[in-house]
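anyone else get weird line breaks when pasting these?? whatever heres mine. first is seq + tokens for prot A
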Amino acid sequence: MKRILQLSFTALILFSANQAFSQNAQEKDSLSSKQNNLDEIIIVGSRNPSKSKLETPVPIDVINLAKIKNVTPQTSINDILTYMIPAFNSNRQSASDGTEHIDPASLRGLGPDQTLVLINGKRRHTTSLVNYQNTVGNGSVGTDLSAIPASAIKRIEVLRDGAAAQYGSDAIAGVINLVLKENSGLEANATYGQTSRNDGETTNLNLNYGHKLGDKGGFINLTAEFNNRENTNRSQNHNLIIFDQSAYDNYFAYDFAEAPAASRKIDDDLLAAKGLHRDDFNFQVGDAKIQNIQGFLNTAVPINENIEFYAAGGFNKKNGTGYGFRRLPSETGNVVPEIFPNGFQPELKSNILDLSLISGIKFKLSDWKLDFSNTYGSNDFKYEVNNTNNVSLGAASPTNFDAGSHSFMQNTINTDASRSFDSVLKGLNVAFGAEFRYENYQIEQGEPASYENGGAQSFPGFSPLNVVNESRNSFAVYADTELNITDKFLVSGALRFENYTDFGNTTNGKLSAKYKITDNFFVRGSASTGFRAPSLQQHYFNNIATDVVDGKLLNSGIFRNDSDVAKQLGIPELKEETSTNYSFGIVYSPIKKLSFTIDAYQIKIDNRIILTGNLGNDPYGDPIPELQAIFEQYGAQTGRFFTNAINTTTKGIDFVADYNLDLGGGNLGISVLYNYNKNTVDKTLNNIPAIFAGQEDVYYGPQERSLIESNTPLHKGTLALNYGVNKFNFLLRNTYFGEVTRNGFPFGIEQEHRGKIVTDLSVAYKIIPQMQLILGANNLFDVFPDKQVYENSYYNVFKYAPVQMGTTGAYYFARISYRL
């Protein structure tokens, strides 16, 4: 029924808009421009600076963010890409430590660390956070796209093809290039919204100002943005009664909503006699509270006709509050009753500072173009645990703890040279360069009370044993060429050699081609090898944290790959992931304003790095004494390790159709987007130590396997309609999130979540030429994933899994925009 309503609603909007404005002429400054943007020059994927996205031999998506940002319901880069690129997915996680504060993202179902992010074509640093709470991207380290203000970005280029031979490590799934604004003028936006459940309020304020510098193309562009998102609560029942009906002095998790009315009244009376109320036992499950304060700069200053200085970068100050599992009063090993007689739910607060600066000089030397640059980036993540206790300290325990921090710094020195030779066949472009990169990763300890004798409940702080200060260098040389053999046939190739101080050398190549069958129809394809260096975080991250292991809260350790316990168990040293990537596609553009592309691809990754399951129990959840005795020496009952344990194969198809037409005095843009993506993990594991023989389902089990194979939609598609006429603009977008399957083994069971459609709608009105008012909704019909079965819901607390469209539900917003 919902799908019928959605399709009917689409037709109604188009019909109403056409009837209401068919007699009006479109103004020159309409919100939807007639200009075809299919020919916009792109940066990513080629060092030939003259290619549009339809002329490249590999698939590239271009989102003109400066044009659509005001009318789309989403405000962060992760959310915008999720709803505009079917091969991209990002979900907010709950009760997952640091992962609640930096959303993991996936391109083509691969890990967050298998997509390279660029700013103005320069490598962006990753975060210092390791995702280790069995979420999407488990065991990976991604890039925090939310640290870059959307209001600073002109367009987003998404290269959907392996590009390690061109850009180095991480570019296995593809590359996301964020191109910053260069425009002059002033733009200010204010957005307020909240969910249909009166939570998750968002406030976004941003200011962008650009000014020309001189008369030779110089400019400066500045952006300031403030974004505040309140938490949501999507627990099975916001008001859990926590009461043991057989012994009134003890408590346990009991779903009040499911109890008969008579029982509810009795329980309320019993609680009232103890001076309690069921509201005292709320369990927060949902999106964390996040606040960002951001500033960004983009500038270019011509020194003379042949030399230009440029710089870009900024800062992001992020504070977040997430929630751990509730500790119940009966859990005497977790709760100090003198401090929390009713139990407590811990809060994990983050204080994250992200800094970046790109600076460089471009030269013209005869027919050569030279580019020398330095790119610096750092991410510092501090933890504070509140509303909790350290049981070992008894009534003297603090309730707030400084739990320590981790940080990552990356500095890249790069030199590029390129030249075009028009006289070689139908045109040759040559580019080559060298790159030196330095990286440093640190973990700093928290205050003693946060880690001593089991530490703060929910998130024990980093101890002196966890402290890390490790660095590495890499050096690379590379070359790529593009040759137009004829007017119809283009061939390009790239070769890259790279040396890392921690694992050695790797050489990768890429060959791609495009052939025009007619002026409007051509085929394209590529073949490449790639690699991803194990991150310093995967080499050296270690901690002891409280985790759910076989349905119980236990201290579980993540141990360094070079630690004594790793050597004792025979865990092999980390090495690079290697990949092969093949794609073949067609492009058809019968008229200037209409284009179709379809691309099939296959990505094989060997020695993929994973984080093992919790070792120490057998596949049935029973303790293995000899293993637990080893881990207990380090204050844990179970242990996990990073290892090159698996090989994977990814196969898929991307389809993109764009059409712009004049309709009823206005302009209608239609986009149909679709992605089919299937990930498969080989059945045989790599290099499993002999001590874990027979424990393959623990070392890398059904839960970890399902996170890669089936936790992102097999099918995802979008139908977007953008109609601009006179002073109005209408955006209507239906996004289909296909089925996903989650396996909660060993704690839960396998469950399929059916595919769902999410509808976005916004209406913009130009009050005066400089000012617009926008009203709209994301997930207009309040669509959620299927409810979790009881076995996967942690005693009915987690009503929904954070898959597909997530658990926010319907979100309504109002925005006012001013441009001068």
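and prot B, same format (seq, then tokens)
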Amino acid sequence: MSTTEGPARWPACAGETAERIRHLDFDSTPLGPPDRWPRALRNIVDVMLRSAAEMAVYWGPDYIAIYNDAQARTIGNKHPGNLGRPTVEFSAEIWDELKPRFDKIFYGGESASGRDWPFMLNRRGVLEQSYFDYAWSPVFDDDGRIGGILCITTETTERVRATQALAASEKQARERGEQLQMAQAAGGVGVFSHDIETDTLHTSSGFCRIFGLPEGEVYPASAIESLRIDLDDHPSGRQGRIDGACAPEMEYAIRRASDGAVRWISHRAELIHDETGRPVLMRGVVQDITASKQADATLRQSEARFRVLARQMPNLVWTATPDGRLDWVSESMSKYSGLGFDELLGDGWQRTLHPDDLPRATRLWHQALETHTAYENEARLRRHDGAWRWYLARVQPVEGSDELRTSVRWIGVNSDIDEQKAAQHRLAQSVVERTRDRDRLWQLSADIMLVADLRGRIMAVNPAWQALLGWTEAQLMGKPILQLLHPDDVTPTLTEFVRLRRGRMHSRIENRLRHLDGSYRTLSWTAVPDAHLLHAVGRDVTALRESEARLRQSQKMEAIGQLTGGIAHDFNNLLQGITGPIELMRRRVALGRTEGLERYMDAAAQSARRAASLIQRLLAFSRRQTLDPKPMNVNELIASMGELLRRTLGEHVRLRIAPDAATGAAFGDAAQLESAILNLAINARDAMPQGGELRIGTSAVVLDEADAKRLDLSPGRYCAISVNDTGIGMSPEILAKAFDPFFTTKPIGQGTGLGLSMVYGFAQQSRGLVHIQSAPEVGTTVTLYLPRADAGEPADTPSASKDAPLPQGQGEVVLVVEDDPAVRLLVLDVLEGLGYRTLHAEDGNCAIPILQSEARIDLLVSDVGLPGINGRQVAEIARGLRPGLPIVFMTGYAEHVRTRAEFLAPGMEMIAKPFTVDDFAGLIQQAMRGRTS
């Protein structure tokens, strides 16, 4: 039933799409009723429906589509069917291109834009090339996670087509200009005007070039007439005079004045008469037609040679008049048929054709005569001894020179193909045999076989379908294969169909087909398309996939058991180190004994710090820690760690730092890099119980496509930090498990097994890589690759910490938003102890009325992971109500907070739980100094 009934009809705005949303049965859509939608989605839909721009929001991992009226007009006949439906259901033709772009935004938080981007869309029943300007960005839900994608598009198809048409038109104009230049260079056309009364000629430059005369002069008609020559031996066209009595159209020969060359001229003119009817002016054009005359002469010579050669050819040669009647046959044709020349001319050739072949030959011959196109046909001709042989007749029309291109002659050749026809018959018999073999394979195969059209309708199936899936051939014929698929497999299978239709030569895909009893079987398909059909063979892999699934589940449970066992072991130790001292302190305080409490407090604090370190390592391993990536000078960072590393390694291990000056700056979190190097150094120390050398080196690395693919990285520039020891090394079995969480070869109590896991997670989250090379008794080299910072970005330099008293406040008011009562109490006590006044709220909904009030607020301190409205959304609301308000975030873990730079806006700071009072007080004072209101 619809959820839009009731007093509050949402969305409360005009428009056809808004009306459809109000009456849409959302219970049948993945989104559910609108009153259960996240507030963020309802807000963006409200904004979108009131906009004149083409806008759509695609919500959730299935990218459910909601759009406005402008977008509805753009998507054509897919509206309103795709309203509230997953995008894949109505965008199969572009899903391969669209899904990776959407995933980068939805899972990676990136934005994307483009101009005149081409898409092949089916929005009017056919695929059509369309172009769009687009801007795509992530939309955050009420929990601060990315909930969907906002798309703003503008169709530019008409503009792009207009631009393309203009370019094509300009190209044609250039080509026409070039053709005109070529024509002029080859002789071109000349223009003249003959004044009959004065017998003078006014000529163009083209006219003068044709006749070889100097330009710019007036000539008497007799000067041109003197260039005329007679070519009696040349069967040319019409002759005439170039004076007042000459014919308007004629052809004649001249000897060109400039070089004496003989040229043929085509002359066309019109006479102008005065009021008495007397001719007074002739004007017209002349053209050099020497090349055409030469071609005619060559053709006549070729025809003469043809008749001589035809008498010597083994094939049967003949010619025909324009109406198709034979007017000449070769001697070989007469000898073959045993008929005289006169018997074969006209329509006599029909007497030589086999009666069964005559109707087709006659019909094709009349078609060729009507269309003036070449004729080709196979037929049996009777030999003089009564035998019939197969001949291939090929006939070519020789076109005339008149404007209607009337055929003046037909030239035909009959070639003996009797042996080829016999070979074809033998081949056909072989094909029949092979077809029988194929049919036996079709009938007996245990794999199911399928022939379907390119839309997926079943055209033929083999008997294995009934044995494997229970369906008979009659039940399957004409049925769309998609109707048998498991719903989750429809989209990938449809995608493969689209690829095959676009010309992909073959495809391999797995999907699940429904048995007649309603169960599903897993099939592995090999499919090949031809011009109109799809041929596929499917093998039942149900048992194999079930076995693989059981194996994966077993391996997963083993890994989970190892992980939970390691966490339980370490946390029980840490909790004992916290709860034990607290219990002892409570007992002593109850007895009034306060001496010696400090060592219990120190022990509890130390265990708490170890617990925080363990949590940080788990987050690093899972790539969920909050990073603060910045350009950092790798060489200076390692140099600043020198003293710490020497104290950690002890006297029996020699430390050698070998920086490469060309290494430059890496882009990453300096604190996490320090922790990673320290972890690697400790591992190396423990691998050298008898002493040895630890070498830390740096270098600049450029990975090309091949190296990057081998290391599973993106091509580009990297900073490499290598930690090399001369210790005991690792066997291949141990090396394969080195990054597994809680895997360690150290004795119980001497390692958590999270060190390398933390380094691995940090490298992956930083878009880098960690690589290990090791061999027993040789040593181990761990290389950490981090992306290199762009040139010009300032690199952070490590700075020494300074002890200082806690900074005090001056009575400023701090609003604390924290849902954990114990943490809230602690933060309020710390702030009040530092001299600040406090307000507090247990969640975002309680904080909003305080922010909307007239109360003074100088700083907002908020947890990130609040129930309902998260801390980042509370901050946005606070900035809208109180511009410039400084904000400090506290976070234990927030899935969408991966890097500080992506999460924090100007005037915002972040501190990770658990934190020390010193760090918290310093950050509060730093935020206060940045106050703008």
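btw re prot B: The first strand starts at residue 54 and ends at 59. The two ends are 51 Å apart (CA to CA).
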